[in-house]
Every structure is written in structure tokens, then in C-alpha cells.
From TrEMBL:
UniProt keyword annotation of DNA repair present: no
GO BP: any one term: methylation
Keywords: Methyltransferase, S-adenosyl-L-methionine, Signal, Transferase
Species of the source: Desulfobacca acetoxidans (strain ATCC 700848 / DSM 11109 / ASRB2)
Signal peptide (UniProt feature, chain positions): 1-24
GO MF annotation terms: methyltransferase activity
CDD domains: TP_methylase
Source organism superkingdom: Bacteria
Positions of the Tetrapyrrole methylase domain: 31-257
Designated name of the protein: Uroporphyrin-III C/tetrapyrrole (Corrin/Porphyrin) methyltransferase
């Protein structure tokens, strides 16, 4: 008798689930993809990155970055998260207290945004946050994603500006027996307390220095390097690495490069490479 009742109960439950799909198990959670697009449009984007965009329910992307990817974004829900959330406090000339407040306010807004993203993920949606180059190098996307569990995130690697730049230079960053390749930003290299420390200490070694975001501070950077390195140390600048119509390479030395780039207007899209690797050889048989 008892068994009969339990069986009837089970059948009843099953029928209820079938009749009310709202009561069925929730969909599997979606993923938050951080997608590296490479340095210069779809030609340099991996197939995996393009596939990820295709399967995304929501694409988060700065409008400028979206321009060369229009074909892949058609029919997609695309949203620019930076417009509301991002601010550069350096540009605002703020007092320390005002700066702290502004940053705290932005973090609050970001946390709210991430809450909304989590709701979408729990509904089974896939979200793709697009970024240029290699997403793990100098990318503000990591600020945006704060609060998401690692388990919810997948990073799709992208070709970095460093790789496209070395290709444009036709040199190996590890060439000429370089003992290291240093990726840095001008501002990080010229530390706050002792701006010369890295230049002074690293000049003891044969290495390759690669600078992101360095064009605005190039005078300062070169003057610091010149104090500790010979003037004939090779330097190259690659503007718009990877862009078929805009890429430009300027080569010189610590002594000559500044004069050579005087006519250049571009102050953002350029990589500065310093080191003997620029003169080669790229690799030797006995290495
Ligand atoms: C915020 S960082 C982003 C770097 C990016 N995640 C990467 O891996 O290439 C921006 C800086 O990267 C460099 N950069 C990015 N794309 C570039 C390109 N196509 N050509 C030259 N420099 C580039 C510039 O130095 C620029 O100021």
C-alpha cells in the first residue's frame, strides 16, 4: 500500500515538472569570456576568439575596438561598459581625497555591473568581453572583472602588440644572446621613488626592453637609459604594429631615435624596443 502511494507520488511529481517547464532544473550557468582580439583587426584574431564572439549572448566592447569587427558583431547585443564605469583620474587634476572618492564610487558602480553580469550568467548566458592584443598584458578588463569567480571566467588568448612588433622588425626579441625580454610600461619602468633604478641595474645585462604606453614619455625614457647605456644601443619604434595600411617602423639608437621620430604625431599606438637583439643574430647554432 505504502509503495503504491510513493509510486503515485513520483508519477505526480514527474507530470507536474513536465506540465510546468518553469519548475524544471535551471539552465547550466553561462561563461564570462575575456577575449583577446590581437593587435590590429580580425586578420590577427584567432579562430577561437571569433568563435567565442559568435556564441556570445552579450558582447562587451569599446566602440572603437568594435569598428573592424562589425561583421562578427552583426545581430549581437553589444554594450560599451567603459562609458559609464571608466574614468582616468590623472586627467581630472583631483586632490588626493577627491581622487579616493572618485575611485571608490567607480568601484561601487563596477560591483553593481558585475552583479548584473552574474544574473545573466546564472540564466545560462555567455558573455564576451573584448579587448585588444594579449588580454593578460596591461588590460583594464581585469579591473572590470573583479568579483567574478575564476571558475566563471575563461580567457581566450590573443596575439600581443609585442609579437606583431617583433614581426614587423623581422628580429627575435631573444636574439643577440639576450638573457631576458622585459615587457614594461614607461611609467612602471621609471619608478616613483627612484626613477633610475631599473635602468641602472638592468644595464649590467644584455637584455631586450619592450615598452608599452611609452611614446608620451619617450624623452624621459631615453634620457634615463642614456645615463647607463652606450649611445649606440639600438632602439626601434613600431607604430600600428600589424595594421596592413598603417604599420610603420622607425629604427635608430639611443642617440639618434628621438630626432627620427620628431615628425610622428602618434603618441599611443607604438611600441618601443631597445636592445642588441635589434641588430641580431636571432639565433645561433650553438645556443
Ligand atoms: C593598454 S596597452 C594594451 C596592450 C595589449 N593588451 C597588448 O597585449 O598588445 C596599450 C599599449 O599597447 C601598445 N599597442 C597595442 N596595440 C598596438 C599596435 N597595434 N601597435 C603598436 N603598439 C600597440 C601601445 O604601446 C599602447 O600604448
Amino acid at each position: 500500500m505504502k509503495l503504491k502511494f510513493s509510486l503515485l507520488g513520483l508519477i505526480f511529481l514527474l507530470l507536474t515538472f513536465m506540465a510546468c517547464p518553469g519548475m524544471a532544473a535551471p539552465p547550466p550557468a553561462g561563461k564570462f569570456f575575456l577575449v583577446g582580439l590581437g593587435p590590429a583587426g580580425p586578420e590577427h584574431t584567432t579562430l577561437k576568439a571569433l568563435e567565442t564572439i559568435k556564441k556570445a549572448d552579450l558582447v562587451l566592447c569599446h566602440p572603437e575596438l568594435a569598428v573592424p569587427f562589425q561583421t562578427y558583431l552583426q545581430g549581437k547585443e553589444v554594450f560599451d561598459p567603459w562609458k559609464e564605469l571608466w574614468v582616468n583620474p590623472e586627467k581630472k587634476n583631483l586632490k588626493p581625497e577627491e581622487r579616493r572618492e572618485l575611485l571608490a564610487e567607480k568601484e561601487k558602480q563596477r560591483d553593481e555591473f558585475i552583479k548584473q553580469m552574474k544574473v545573466r550568467l546564472s540564466q545560462g548566458q555567455n558573455i564576451a568581453l573584448l579587448t585588444g592584443g594579449d588580454p593578460t598584458v596591461y588590460s583594464r578588463t581585469f579591473w572590470l572583472m573583479k568579483g567574478l569567480d575564476d571558475d566563471a571566467v575563461e580567457i581566450i588568448p590573443g596575439l600581443g602588440a609585442i609579437t606583431a612588433s617583433m614581426a614587423a622588425l623581422k628580429r627575435a626579441s631573444t636574439g643577440a644572446k639576450a638573457r631576458f625580454v622585459l615587457q614594461t610600461a614607461a611609467r612602471s619602468f621609471l619608478g616613483k621613488t627612484d626613477p633610475d633604478d631599473l635602468a641602472r641595474n638592468l644595464s649590467k645585462y644584455n637584455g631586450t626592453l619592450v615598452f608599452y604606453m611609452g611614446l608620451k614619455e619617450i624623452d624621459n625614457l631615453l634620457n634615463t637609459l642614456k645615463k647607463y647605456n652606450p649611445g649606440d644601443l639600438p632602439v626601434a619604434i613600431v607604430y600600428y604594429a600589424g595594421y596592413p595600411d598603417k604599420e610603420k617602423v622607425v629604427k635608430g639608437t639611443l642617440d639618434t631615435i628621438l630626432a627620427k621620430i620628431t615628425p610622428e604625431q602618434e603618441k599611443w599606438w607604438g611600441m618601443i624596443v631597445v636592445g642588441r637583439c635589434l641588430a641580431g643574430p636571432g639565433f645561433e647554432m650553438n645556443e
